[in-house]
Design a protein that fits this description.
Chain lengths: 185, 365
């Protein structure tokens, strides 16, 4: 479960104890504006639409009773989605059958992508995501989900200048992971 | 000048405007940096593909699911939702074709009544039966708005009520008690009720032709008298008891809804049904299963995604019931119709567990 109250620790939003508050009046408005992005962030981590939608639900359910300022909602939700999805991935809460489903109709990728990166490689990259330092993994996922450098910087308490470095390190580590397997095949 | 950092090269790929002019100019003339830029570009492209996840996000379905989950937590925002269907992903799956269930399909599966000038009941669900098809086909199922104008005349107004007695007062439906909760399901349920939903549908030959043409087909010539014919659809009221334990998807749901009915204002019904079934944008396997229902006008089809769910039949208190089990064995449900009410028991349970709950429901008092 994601945080009922977001706290910042080391520039990363972490779980705090859930607090029971009234449902925020702007919930539907924020939901409609940000849901596609939140699902996309989770899907990049999990590779499955069904699971990504489950994560998005979890995140919005927490957000519904939170007092996150409206202006920070989109950023907060994206970061929470990345963390929650990474937690799912790491804790192995995924079921084997769901992974099969993810390899089937749930994830539609361009034909070109399939030709360049095999399904097995996708799985390896996602597994390697959980071994990255959390901030690198979140920065990578947010950037590849379309957040600007300024948005990623604000979300993770980084300077915009160091977002590039963080993302580059993450990409380089993941690429090495792929090459390592390729050369050992 | 020193070479810009790897991070600067990386940003140059995404946001060149965010990189200082001096750095950009340096990179343009520096073979070392250009090579670093190319490596960064390659890595970024491969990782982007590896993490890609392209699909359409259904915001409405997501919102309904969230609104239900928030409401189930106890305090409800203004939450529109279909009444009675099982929760979570199931609800999404079963709710999306609600119009089709109550509408097109009720028409398609309906009785062959040549109605007079008055409203005449042409459909009233007395049993349920699964229509199993690949998900891709179910997604293609048109809803009524593809064939004419649908005017909703009464909405469900789904709302929480404090207890079973209040639910019964609000709906007139008896609310069963669960004899013994399955393992892992605890606590008291939350109750929600909804009123009767009704709508009037006016068939439009022009709109139908437009839909069929847009799907790449050629509309067959419509039978006389179909254009402008009207149908009145209704379902509900309904009640649902959910054991949620604070989770987005309830562990157990027991729901009851007054069966859908369709009335016609006068049209040679068999002709209308045959016409709709002949449209090229209705998936052939779905159409043929629906044709199997024709005649009695009493079978409520449950659309079942062949990839996700398997179906079987069972007996609940002497009434035939349809059992749905998700192929990953995470969820199961059982649905039956008795005395003009559809009852469903579903949850994150096995088929045996939902059947045991269904058979152990206690009525009355």
């Amino acid at each position: 479960m994601v945080a009922g109250r977001a706290e910042r620790k080391d520039g990363v939003v972490v779980s705090g104890p859930p607090e029971r508050q009234a449902v925020r009046p702007d919930l539907e408005q924020v939901f409609r504006a940000t849901y596609p992005r939140v699902v996309t962030v989770a899907a990049r981590v999990l590779g499955s639409r069904d699971e990504a939608e489950d994560v998005a639900q979890e995140v919005f359910l927490t957000f519904a009773r939170s007092s996150v300022p409206a202006g920070e909602a989109s950023r907060w939700l994206s970061v929470a989605a990345a963390h929650t999805a990474l937690n799912h991935l790491r804790s192995g809460r995924r079921r084997a059958s769901r992974e099969e489903a993810a390899d089937g109709g749930d994830t539609v990728s361009p034909d070109v992508a399939d030709a360049v990166v095999t399904r097995d490689e996708r799985r390896r990259v996602r597994a390697a995501l959980t071994r990255l330092p959390r901030r690198q993994a979140v920065a990578l996922v947010l950037r590849h989900s379309g957040l600007s450098y300024a948005e990623v910087a604000a979300a993770l308490d980084l300077s915009p200048g160091s977002v590039g470095t963080t993302v580059r390190r993450a990409e380089s580590a993941l690429r090495k992971e792929l090459n390592r397997h390729a050369s050992s095949d | 000048m020193r070479h810009p950092t790897d991070g600067t090269l990386r940003r140059l790929l995404d946001e060149p405007d965010g990189v200082a002019d001096a750095d950009r100019e340096h990179v343009a003339d520096c073979p070392v940096c250009l090579s670093g830029l190319a490596a960064a570009q390659q890595d970024a492209a491969v990782i982007d593909i590896a993490l890609s996840a392209e699909f359409t996000v259904d915001v409405d379905a997501g919102w309904h699911r969230l609104a239900d989950a928030v409401a189930a937590e106890g305090r409800s925002p203004a939450a529109p939702a279909a009444s009675g269907a099982p929760g979570g992903r199931w609800r999404t799956r079963l709710r999306n074709p609600v119009l089709a269930i109550v509408g097109v399909v009720a028409l398609l599966g309906g009785a062959s009544v040549a109605a007079a000038a008055d409203w005449l009941r042409i459909f009233r669900a007395e049993q349920v039966a699964p229509v199993t098809a690949p998900r891709a086909d179910l997604v293609k199922l048109p809803d009524l708005s593809a064939f004419g104008d649908l005017e909703v005349t009464a909405k469900a107004n789904v709302r929480p009520v404090p207890d079973a007695a209040a639910a019964q007062r609000a709906t007139g439906l008896s609310v069963p008690r669960v004899g013994r909760l399955p393992r892992g399901v605890t606590g008291e349920p939350t109750y929600r009720v909804g009123g009767q939903v009704s709508a009037v549908f006016t068939f439009s030959v022009a709109k139908t032709a437009q839909t069929v043409t847009a799907a790449g087909g050629t509309p067959p010539p419509p039978p006389a008298g179909l254009d402008g014919s009207r149908f009145r659809l209704s379902a509900g009221p309904g009640v649902a008891a959910a054991w949620s334990q604070g989770r987005p998807a309830p562990a157990l749901i027991v729901a009851r809804v007054v069966v859908p009915t369709v009335h016609s204002s006068g049209v040679p019904f068999a002709t209308a049904r045959d016409y709709l079934l002949s449209l090229p944008n209705l998936p052939a396997n779905v159409a043929s299963q629906l044709r199997g229902f024709s005649g009695a006008g009493t079978t409520l089809p449950l659309f079942v995604s062949a990839e996700k769910l398997s179906t079987s039949t069972a007996d609940v208190g002497g009434v035939p019931a349809t059992v749905l089990t998700s192929r990953d064995r995470v969820m199961a449900g059982v649905v039956w119709v008795s005395d003009g009410v559809v009852t469903a028991v579903a949850g994150s349970l096995s088929a045996d567990e939902v059947l045991s709950v269904a058979r152990g429901l206690r009525w009355g008092r």
